[in-house]
Structures are given as structure tokens and as C-alpha cells.
What we know:
The protein has 1028 residues and is mainly beta. It comes from Granulicella pectinivorans.
Amino acid sequence: MNKRRLEVAAGLPEGKMLDRAFEMGSRVGPKTFALFTRMALVAASLTVPFARPLSAQTSAQLRALSNQQVASGVEATTVPVSVPAGLAYDAVGNLYIAAMNDQVIRKVDLNGIITTVVGTGEQGFGGDGGAALSAQLDSPAGIAIDGSGNLYIADSHNHRIREVVNGVISTIAGTGTAGFSGDGAAATSAQLNLPTAVSVDASGNLYIADTNNQRIRKVVAGTITTVAGTGEQIYSGDGGPALLAGLDSPNGVAADTLVAGKFYIGDTHNQRVRQVDASGIISTLAGTGTKAFSGDGSSGVGAGLARPRGLAVDTSGRILIADSDNNRVRLLANGTIATIAGDGEQTFAGDTGLAIDAALDTPRTTAVSNSGLIALTDTNNQRVRGITLSGAIATLAGIAPSSTESLVLSGVTSTVYGSGSLTATFNYGSATATGTVTLLDGTTAAGTATFSSNTATFSLATLTAGQHTLTASYAGDTNNPAIVSGVYLVTVTPLAIVATANPVSILYGQPIPTLTGTLTGVLPADTANVTAVFATTATQGSQTGLYPITVSLTGSAAPNYSVSLVTGGQSGPDGVTIAPASSRTVLTTSNASPAYSVSTTLTATVTASTSGTATGTVQFLNGATVLGTSALNAGGVATLPVSTLPLGVNSVTAVYSGDTNLTTSTSASVTETVTPFALVATANPVSVLYGQPIPALTGTLTGVAQADAANVTAVFATTATQGARSGVYPITVTLTGSAAANYTVSLSGTPAVTIAAAGSRTVLASSNASIVFSTPITLTATVTSLTSGTPTGTVQFLNGTTVLGTVAVNAGGVATLVVSTLPIGVNALTAVYAGDTNFATSASTAIAETVGSSDFSFNLATGGNGTQTVTPGLSATFPFTVAPTLATFPQAVTFTVSGLPPGATYTLSPASIAAGAGSTAMTLTVQTSNLAGKLAPAPMPRRHGWPAVALGLLLLPFGTRRFRRLSRRFSRRGLMLVWMVFGLAAAGALSGCGAGGFFNQQQQSYNIVVTATSGSISHTASVTLTVQ
């Protein structure tokens, strides 16, 4: 019955059974859900794909194949699958299985036929760039398939992610060394640590559960990054960036099918399933963090999980969870969780029944096809099981072994070609096997044997060299079922035989003759199929020496033999011997009459008496003196440039030293006649200033042989001396040294020593840099040489461009000029030396000469009050401004004050102004005297003085001793009354006086005069002070 029939029979629309099954399971609980599904299955008379009854013979074969390497191209339920760990469906519904312990990836097609698509079954690493079937894997744990059908493998113990495209395998992430590195760079340069799961999103981006690195990593366009996990093995981070979250041994990862960039994590040891949304924020979807089973029909975040591993997401975005240690598969939809497979019992049971009633053993991962079929790895049951759209479960791949019947091969595991045997032992209770049993080498019959007492012996003499995968196949008899033994591996090593080669001797350059010999030890049946081929690496162009002879075997039976070689009938290194041939050397020269030190090229040509080209070196000699040694080039020619032959007639020869292939030989002599060499000297011209010493004259000598460089010297000379006058003096050259006789010399050009006028320096100084107009100053110009000697001549003094005067320098180079006519202001003065025969002119640096006016202004400051009134004892302040006519005062300014009130004092701030100061604000403060001072200058009429006298007389008794004695007799109140009477009397007397100033005195005004003096100039300023 097909899937549509199952759904229709259950009364549900096509494609909706899983939706309804989950809905019922989550609403009414697993028991009611099971009852509902059972009713649907009974009504449909359910049959399950791939769950077929097996014949007795097939059952026996399957039991024999259990836990052995399995073949491809058979029904998936007839072969064992060792530790199925990873699953993936392709677009058409083919199921791929990562068989971890088989070290292969297998495919179950739509007809239930299983084939191997990746891996040889040998544990290791290898095969990148070649056929996937020839590659080695090491514990493949997870797989994924993208939209183009490319296969991705988490090759866990190789710490790599591998990709299979069109049958060719390659590594796309990981270096093979466990560790963590490489984020932001090429994924092939990054380190992974036990990757256990992979997932591909719709854009082809690859997600990796990097388990022992506690991270989820992502590969986009070949570049790897971490997208979740800090590397710390903890639980943390919900509600924040996934990159800051803690994970614990993530064994599952799945990309969302609806939202790009969203993915899910099986956070295994944190007992949770977590989500990372498209913005990178992590949260928990299922699991409390406590290892338990609970929560079906309610929110996933409140459910108990136990080591959740593999995840899968269907086209509607629902999440399948392999709840490994709960021995269940659970479905999370819209936040609600429910069990869809497994009753929690850790065993095997339930095929063809409801998935939720089946027993599972540590399911590791799940997968869901585009049509909604679910596959799960019932890992410890060594099976892959499927859940149909109707909720039924069946085995899709894998078998369980049986121990009731066995056929076992035993014997040698390694033998030499042409020998060895194996024994097949049959065991089926007390039964005795009869008839023959066939030895299969793969699928090819390798021999038969007859059972005797349940054993049969096979000869291995016909097995070729190499490793053989052998099984024994027994067809059974009337009492015994058919059975196939487990795989038995036998390695056949080649049979050792001996070849004898005949040695050969020739001269260098001769052709190599055909090599011959004999072969012994070949089995009679193979004599026509094995031939010895003798060879050597020596060729006609080979160097002299001994070249071993080697032997190889050809023919159809050759791979079954290994051959060793003896030569000349004796074991040893005899082979092809190549001896040296004779040589001939011819010497020529490029110039038979060179000048001394001029290079001449000697050429020696060496040829062989047979064939080939000479190698090695040629030594060139002048008599017995070695001129040099040169190597022969590829044409057998050696050259030597020679420039050291002495003057006269030289006899030159060339001696070939020979090489491995040719003997030595000497050329006939060649005559070389050497003449003196003409040199050219170049003198360096010299320019000095008058008075300077003449430096050592230098130059270059061109053409001296390198060997004579220390023995030939050019000596340059001139008639010029330090005391010579300026002018041009020629330079001459001569040769000295032990090798000077080998050369003649001439001077290039007309070099000379030139003596030029020396430079001078003029310094100007003034006796006073700041003066008052018409004050005389002395200007001094000092002229010195920049070399040696004393300048002579005159110095012109200038104010700007105005000539002040011209003065001759004295014997010490000094000229002075007295000037008193400089105008008011700042003058720029310079001195110019006119030069003489030996010294050039020079001008001094300008100096500033400031000529000022001595006049200034002295006034009451603007806004100041020139008339002020104070009472006695108080002070008044008057501001003034003192300003020079020019910018500064040429001389200090001092002040005097007159006209002060009697007894008054004054203060000036500042008390004086220094020369060189500018406009200055000054204050005058006048401090008036006390009352006596006030009354003295303005006496009033005598009649007005008596009240004060009266008051004094009234108060006088209070200070006498008698008054103090009298006061003791009166009370304090009486004394106070007496004092008040006297006070009122005095006050009346005072108030009775007429109007006026303080104490009825008249006020007095004073004209105060301040005089400012600078040099011979004085100015005054007046203010008025009235004292009341």
C-alpha cells in the first residue's frame, strides 16, 4: 500500500497525516494519540515500505554479515549499518546515511537499494581531489545535502568538513589538526575540533557544530566565522548576542527553512535546543537545562530533554529533535513539544507499528524529506528507521545479528603466493553440514571444498598477490539453512624468485649493448606468463662508473612474484662498467702581441676520442707559472682572459685535467709578446684663497693593471706655494713605484692650481646705541681675513645710503669715525670695506642707532579732578600723565612738589621714571595734617576762642586728685548728673559761636605745584587742594 493509500484509508487529506498526528499527540497526550493512530492503521490494513519478510537463506546470510564490512547494491534492510550517526535527504527523496564505524557514507534509493557513495571503509584520511569512493574517512558523524545535490560530511575525527561534488571529494574546512583558529580567513586554513553535525541553508551557507570548540561556525563563500558560542563550556547568554553565549558540546545544528540567517542548535550537555535569530540573538526553544523527560503537549521551554543531539527542520519550519537519552524523537511546532517516536524504552521494538509505541536505543539524529517522510538513526540498534506520513515506523536500513547459526573462516591471514589454506567451520546446534561450500573472493568463486565433520579446507594457491576479502558461502542442505560467513581478510605476498644478469664493460661514449640474464624459481604454471626484463640507468651519454643492473618482471603472472638480482653469477654490485676515453686539447689566443696589462683571451678546446663532450677544467700556464683555471662549457671549451703577462716573450700552454669520462691532455704552446702600456693621468684642479696653504695635489691614474695597483703611483706637483700671489699655476705628473717601468704616462688636459682673493668680514660697533640729538658717538669698523693675513684699504661709513665718511684701516684692520650729526629717530648704520689686492670687499650687518629728543609733556591726566576739598587728616589723589616726545625718555625723569598745606605729606607713584621708559601714568597723593595743623594757618578772632577754653576749665576739676576723693562721697547717679550739667554748659558755649569751618574755622585753599625734570628740561603742573 502506498503513502496516499495510507492517508486516505485513515480518513485524512493527502499530505496532512503528520500535522494531524502531532496535533492529536499534543492535545490529548501520547496514549490517546496512539489509540487514534492505531485505529487509522487498522482501517488501512497498513503495510510499511522496506519492511519485508526474509527467506531462511537470506536471514542466514544477514546474520553472517552482521558487524562486517557490507556490500553495495542490495536491499538496505539486508545489510548491517554500524553506528548510523548522520542522515540527509536529497531533493528527490534518496536517503544518505553516515555509518560512523563503517567509515562510509551510504545511499538508500527510492527502491530501498543501498549503495556506498563515499569511503573505502578504511579508517583514516586520504583521497582529496579524487573519487569519493576511494577516499578515507574517520568517524563521519553528520551529513547535509544542498539544493544542487552536493554532499557535506562532518569527518569528525579528521577534524574536517568534506564536500562531494559530482563524485569528487575535497576538504572545504579544517586543517586536520584539532584546535580552534582561522575565523575571518579561508575555512581550509581554520582549525576545528570534533565537528559532529553540518547543515546547509537555502543560499548554500554551511553551518558546523564545532563540538569540542563549544561553537557553531559558518562558512560563506569559503570564509569561516563563529556565529554562536564563546568557546567556554557553560550555559549562558540567552537574550543576548549568540557570540557571547556559552554552549556545552553542541551535537546538532539546523538552518531554518523559512527565515534566512536563522538556525537552531542541539546544545547537548546543556539539555536544551536553542535558536539564533537572523539578528544574531540567542534564546532557548526547548529544555529546562535538567536532564529529564517531561512536557509533551506543552511549551517546549518547560519540557525536559536528555542530551538532545541531531535536529531537522521541515518545510513548515517545525523542528525535529533527537532526544537521545530519552530514546525518543520529538517535534517542536509553534512553541509546543510532543513525542512522535519512541516510548522511552532503551531497546528495539515496534517496527510496522506506531512510531510512538516503538522502542529506540539512543537516536542520534533525524532528517525529513520534502514530502514529509521522517528518518531517524536508531544508533545503538544499528538501524535507520523511518516514520511514514501516517505515523508508522519501519526499518529503512540495517539488520541485527543472530547467534543461532554460524559459518566461520579461520586459518592464515597472510601467505605467500602459491601456498596457504583456510578452514570453514559450520555450526548450527548439533546439525552436521553436508555437501560443498564455496570460497568467494568478493563475488568471484575462488574454490570449493567438501564438508567433513562440519569443516572444509580451501587451498589458497590460486589467489593472486594482494589483499583478498573472502567469504564462505554454504547453500545449505535438507537440515541446514544457507549461510554466508563473515568477511575474512587474507593478504597474499608475492613469491620470491632470483634473476641473474650478465655484466657489461664499455668506454665512455659507446652505446650500451642489450642486457641479458636468466630467471629461476617461477612456478611451472606461470613460466609462459613471467619474463625478466634487465635494465640499467646507463646510457651512451652516461658518466664513467659502475651502473647497477636492475630487473623487473612482465607478464600476466608478474604481480605474484618479487624478484632479486645477482650479476655475473655472484651476488653483488656488478653491472654496466663505463671506463674513461682519451682526450685532445688545442690552445688559441685572441692577441699574440698585447700591451702590458691589456687583456688577452686564451681559448682551450677539448674533444673526446669517442663521442660525448668533455667536462671539467683547463689549467693555463706561462711556462711553469699558473695563469688560471677555467671550467669547460657545454661545448667542451674553456676560456681565460689574461692581463698579467710580463713584458717580453711568453710561452703559454693549456692542460686539460680530465674528468670522470676522459683522460688528461696538454696543448701545444702559444707565444705571447707583451709591450709597455701607456697610462693617462687626470689631475684634480685646485682652487685656494690667498693665504691658504696649497693642499696635497691628487688625481687618478687610468689603465694600471690590478696586480700593479700597489706598485705604480702618480705624483702630481706645482710651483705654487702658500706665499704666492693670486694667479694660475700649472700641475705636472710623474710615475713612481716598482712597476712604473711597465708604463708610460701623459697628463689629461691642463690642470692647474688657482689662487683667488680671500674673503673678508667687517663688523661695525657704536659707542652708544641710544643718544640725544647732537650727542657725538664713535663708530668702529673691524675688518678681518677669512683665511690669514690682515686686510688693507678703506672703510666707508653709511647711514642708510648717506655717506657719513671714509676712513683708512689701521695696521690692525680697524677704522673709526666720530659722528654727531645723526638725525632724530632710528638710524641704520653700516660699514663697507673696499677690499684690496688679496682680500675681497665686505659689508657689515646694519646696526640701529636711536637719536631722541629730550623734551616731554607733563599734564593732569584726562578726566582727573584738579581741584579737590578734604577735611583735616584726610588725603586727596591727583592723576598725571608724563609722555616723552619720542617713544621713550632719553634720560630719567624726577619730580618735586611745593605748596603743600602745613603739616601735610605727599606720595608720588612712581617716584621717578627710568630712561628708556615710555608714556607713564603718575599719581600724587597729599595727606593733610590733624586739627592743630588745620588751625594754625588761619586763626580766627579772639572772642570766638573762649568757649573752648571754658569747656577745658570745666573739665579740669574732673582730673584732679581732690575730685576723685570727692567722687567717692557721691553716688554714681549724682556724679553723672553733675557731668551732664557741665557738658550742657560747654555745648551751649560752643553752639553759641558763629558759622564757619571745622570747629568754626575758615576753610583754606592751597596751590600745589609738581615739577618734572629730565636732563636740562623741566615742566610743571598745578592742582588746588582746599582744606575745611
